[in-house]
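Researcher: Last one for today. Full complex below.
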Amino acid sequence: MILVVLMSILFLGGVLAWLSEGLDSRFPRVVALAAVVIDLLVMMALVGADTEGSSWIVQLNAQWIPRFGISFHLAADGLSVLMMVLTAFLGIIAVGSAWDEITERTGFFYFNLLWTLAGVIGVFTALDLFLFFFFWEVMLIPMYFIIAIWGHENKNYAAMKFFIFTQVTGMFMLISILALAYFHYVQFGWFSFDYFDLLKVNTSSAIEMWIMLGFFVAFSTKLPSFPFHSWLPDAHSQAPTAGSVILAGVLLKTGAYGLIRFAVPLFPEASMQFAPFAMTLAVISILYCAKVAFAQTDIKRLIAYTSISHMGFVVLGIYAWNEQALQGAVMTMLAHGLSAAALFMLAGGLQHRIHTRDMDHMGGFWAKVPRLSFVALFFSIAALGMPGLGNFVGEFLALLGAFQASIGLTVAAAFGLIFASVYSLWVIQKVFHGAYRNSDFDDTHLADLSRREMFYFGAMMIGLIWMGMYPQSFLDMSSTTLTNLLNETGQLLSTQGSEL
Amino acid sequence: MITSFNDLLPLMPLLIVTATSVVAMLMIGIRRSYIATGTITITGLLAATLVAVSMMDWTNQQVTPLLIIDQYSLLFTVVVCASAMVLAVLSFPYFFELDDQREEYFLLLTVATIGAIVMVSSNHFVSTVLGLETLSMSLYGMIAYPLHSAKSAKFPLEASVKYLVLSAAASGFILFGMALIYAQTGTLSFASVRELPVAGLGDGYTIVALLMVVSGMAFKLSLAPFHMWTPDVYEGAPLPATAYLATIGKAAMFVVLLRFIQISEALSFDSMVTVLTLIAAASMLAGNLLALLQNNLKRILAYSSIAHMGYLLLALVAGHYVTGTIAVEAITFYLIAYMIMSLGAFGVASIISSSEKEFDSVKEYRGLFWRNPLLATTFIAMLLSLAGIPLTVGFIGKFYIFLSGVEAGLWVLLGVLVLGSGIGLYYYLRIIYRMFMPEKHSQPYRVGGVESVSSYAVLAILLFLLLLFGIYPAPIMSIVAAASAFI
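Model: Here's the assembly. Have a good evening.
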């Protein structure tokens, strides 16, 4: 029931925020903030809950469409809870980053923001594949509106591209889901879309591979992973800051979550066969996008490409499919959620202040805005994987696990860390050091971070330091889920893992 | 033969609609009153809907060799009558200030509905042709209705003549095919096709006959490559007439096609499967691709309707391969979904338009969301539903189509469906994006005509159904499943 409450708070909060605009255009943001904060507090009831051996903390199963065995099946385990907490936390950050930036049509903006978050929570908790797909698509529409209405100069193109990429690949996943349900029907004589029922379906290996690919395409578009990544830089560079925060921090994680929860456990054999290929794609993502990032002059596009590069480590970890690698993947998802969100907020903050994203026009900001520059340095260093911060733990574990699966690919992927240092420091050097230049823009609004902004960044810093210094508190939460997943598919791994 | 009152009872909805047209005609003869004629029409159609609903549980009989009144035909009688009523409500304010005689429009609408009811109840070629021609003849009139109005829609006469000529040619095809079948079997019921001799004149003869019938029907359904007339006719006709043609006209024809294909077992010929597969793929691609380049809302909806008919045809082909009724259910559900979302989309356009000035260019919807959020939200919901996005009935419909395709293993057609839907997103989103753009100038909508609360009310009902069937489809699914067992 608590899961329904979590979603309803956001759905209703969204409606309320929209309605409250009629009273005063400043009300929606207050309503939105209240909704996400309450959500986070309610969620805390799930953190560290006693599960008595089972990995599922709460479950809710109600009939929905009995004709096809579709049920309203929600459940949360440690992994879901981690992801939900990340979602609500970044939800607060997103509301904060929109606080002053969004001045027009505020009611509808916060409505969309909250509905996106609600859809994401649905994705993280749905255990019926039809329901999962339902939420998967539902979170797209409000995100489309956020980009299309409050975006920047080329918003129509970016929003359209985002929507078409994710929707079309989503349809491939729908076909896969239906095929799986149909094979369940053939095997057991009744339709079911339930996760636990579908885990039992046996199919021939060729068919399994095709069905698995349907899932993989949808998830790796969302991640995104090479070669389905081209929508992300456009979406990020055009989205308003709060949109970028949600997109980078949360929406991308749904793809990785889908791989861990569905793509691999449902099709262990096909996934193991496919693993070398997926890991290769991951390595290409890491290296290629790091290289492309280096060539960008638009600061948001640059961060977007680094995002893709870092998400490569997640895919690498998932397809290595051992405990360390999976822990690493989950840790990277969390840490990257915070660091990428922070970097996009900084870029958005800069754009808000000087009305350009072009780094060629920037330089020497440290003297003018020291606090902002320090924060930028901190999160750049976090993103490049400095020991002591969350990203390092995640990427290190992912590489450690991947090393057991494939030495060559891991070595190649590790170069990504070096590239990350190069482009991160290059950005710092270019934007914040050197002589101050303001010939190309109006710097009258170039103010340092306000207290409110410092508060948000401070919260994210604490999060990253906590993850880096004491990762065990996060690892503990997801470990039951991950070991259970590994046990279910473990037989296959031990026979085939050595060949990778 | 009809011998007793009991035999007439199943025909009640048909008789009520017929009586409505007679009463309306007499009313016009006695005293012209737009309001009275409209009220009579709407009341009659409502009564027919309710009677058909009440009959659904216990009626299942063949009335004369021509008409079959079972749950399936009654389900579509309900859909047709309810849609006609919605369109009558929407037409009322639209034609309010037409500078010509306005009352006969309702007469045409009612007569067209009689034709549609006959079609959905038909399992015999004679009733098919009777229904089809009654429907088409009335539609010619409806399309050309504002002909004498000085400021009316742009090309009603061109549209009407185009539709008349091409539709008559299509009817000719159907009749020729029927004649070929009749020449061999001596009867005109759909079932007779199964008895066509394979020896003698052989397979080829049967296939030619079937192809003739199917291509004629494909023409009326505007399936590619028989779709050329659609955009021009849609654009030229006044909005409520376009909506009638696009919803009831298509649905009634598809029900006939479905019954014909199922009863005649036409798909047991491989070449028929090939032909229908090609038509389906061509429609999905052509409809979606050609819609990309359009700037006129009616033309976009015309092309999108071609694509939607293609989706339906996919399920029809799937019906040959699957066991059970899943394909028929898919078609039935999707047709109902299609009716709801098309009526909604055309409804929004016709609410802001009138016979004096139609707002049918995509440009004119700029900023609608900020000017009239409720109307725009309804429109967005309809468009998203047409695109097959969850929370709406269109998604459940797509889900059905996908499911029947997967069960039948039609992977290529499914691939085309994904591709087509992907392309389709572009033009639906383009309209939605327009509605969100900041308004430049506030040109008032609705030049002429009147504001009518009832049109907003029917739109609200359509939106409610769209969301209800999209979020909690279980009840309608069981109705559809029960009815589909009769095909």
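Chain B touches chain A through 29 residues (CB under 8 Å). DSSP finds 19 helices and two strands in chain B.
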